[in-house]
Amino acid sequence: MRTTFAVPSRARRKKVLERAKGFRGGRGNRIRDAYDAVMKSDAAAYIGRKQKKRQYRGLWLIRINAAVRPQGLTYSAFMHGLKMANIDMNRKMLSELAIQDAAAFTALVEVAKASLSK
Question: Is 80 exceeded by the pLDDT of residue 3?
Fold first, then answer.
């Protein structure tokens, strides 16, 4: 097989090897292995960006549930109470409120309890 060392070819390979820098074994410095490694790492990164969103939502749910339980409600009952009270607040903000401002969160829990008891 004929190999070329022209500028564009070298630049392409250099770009791939730069992205494979730090990979274990020959995957970081052999071009054929580096191509495969970089393609696989791109696929994993794409999947990871989707998973990150799921994992954060799960974390917010856990935080909200942990803040609501001592006040005598479950997560699902709390969310249902908020919906009945026409309070539209996303889970990220609710979890931040539970961490940062406990008094405001307690007020929301009371509103949810009141709307559930109607």
Answer: no
